[in-house]
Structure formats: structure tokens, C-alpha cells
Amino acid sequence: MAAPPPAPVPVAVARPAYRAPARAKPTEHRISPVTFTLLATAPAVFALVALRPR
Q1: Which helix (H) or strand (E) holds 35?
Q2: How far is CA 40 from the centre of its chain?
Q3: DSSP string for residues in 8-31
Q4: CA–CA separation, 7 vs 31, rounded Å?
Q5: What three-state secondary structure class fits 37?
Q6: Cα-flanking dihedrals φ and ψ of residue 14, to 5°?
Q7: Which of the pair, 48 or 15, is modelled with greater confidence?
Q8: How far apart are CA 12 and CA 4, in angstroms?
Q9: What pLDDT does 46 receive?
Q10: pTM for this structure?
Q11: CA distances from 26 to 18, 21, 29, 41 (A)
């Protein structure tokens, strides 16, 4: 006659709860590269539209 299988034992490894890393605070008075690109190209695009030959 076969012995019954042993009762399951809970795993003793406790994992810490996941926490996203804190976002780095941007340095003061720093402009975003996207904003800088838009501010640099927008006047040129408007000039091309306004001065195009008709």
C-alpha cells in the first residue's frame, strides 16, 4: 500500500512589494529637448508659410 503524498508546505521566500523607482527631479530652469526643438523650428515654419511665393 502506498503512503499518501505529503501536505504542501508554503514557500518561505517572501519577496518585497514592487515599488517603481522615484523619478529624478529635473534641474531648475531646464528646458525640455522637445520644447526647445518646437521653439526653434516653429518660427522657421511660419516664415516659410508666410513668405512662400504665390
Answers
A1: helix 33-51
A2: 25
A3: P-----PPPPP-PPPPPPPPTT--
A4: 62
A5: helix
A6: -100, 125
A7: 48
A8: 23
A9: 92
A10: 0.41
A11: 24, 15, 9, 24
Quickly tell me which residue has 517603481 as its cell.
20
At 32, list the grid cell: 525640455
- For CA atoms 46, 50, 52, 54, the dihedral sign is positive
Q: Which residue has the cell 522637445?
A: 34
Residue with cell 522657421: 44
* 22-36 tens-digit pLDDT: 888 767 778 889 999
